[in-house]
Specification:
The protein is an alpha/beta fold and 177 residues long. The protein has one domain: Rossmann fold (3-Layer(aba) Sandwich), CATH 3.40.50. It contains 6 helices and 7 strands. It has a 7-stranded mixed sheet with strand order 3-2-4-5-1-6-7, sandwiched between helices. Helix 4 packs across helix 6 and helix 5 runs parallel beside helix 6. The protein is globular, with a radius of gyration of 15 Å.
Length: 177
Amino acid sequence: MMPLSTNTARTTLVIGGARSGKSRYAEELLAAHSGSRTYIATAEAGDAEMAARIAEHKARRGTDWQTVEQPLDLVAALEAHCRPAGAVLVDCLTLWLSNLMAASRDIAAETTRLAQTLPRLEGRAVLVSNEVGLGVVPEHALGREFRDHAGRLNQAVAAAVDEAVFIAAGLPLRLKP
């Protein structure tokens, strides 16, 4: 898949459904980056399925990436690793949101903090997130709470970044600019 990036964007949101090709697309956006590349992983291998997904992502990236595991303090990780000659890829915001909810963190405050930080980053940043609001209304209250937080998080990040791309069936659709 050929990236649609403007090549002038400093910050990009790549959003789409599960297994839509978001992570692969985000990695391709930074494939030709000549400086350092840091992968900020928000996932934790809580079970065998997640461990397999993490291993798949690591194998696809290869050894040219530094990996930083940061399930909660995403802003600190971005500030530490997004430097002028560097690039970071955050995968993914919805797993970060799950971690924040499990830790009983203030979601609105964390969302605001991230959105305010993105325009100030000194290097190239690509953030991956799941679009969870296109399906049925979740049956359980926790699922509805997660969907609502994810929708607000994605809106805040989309407003703060230079470009946003929606991935469906492995195909990119530019949302912004």
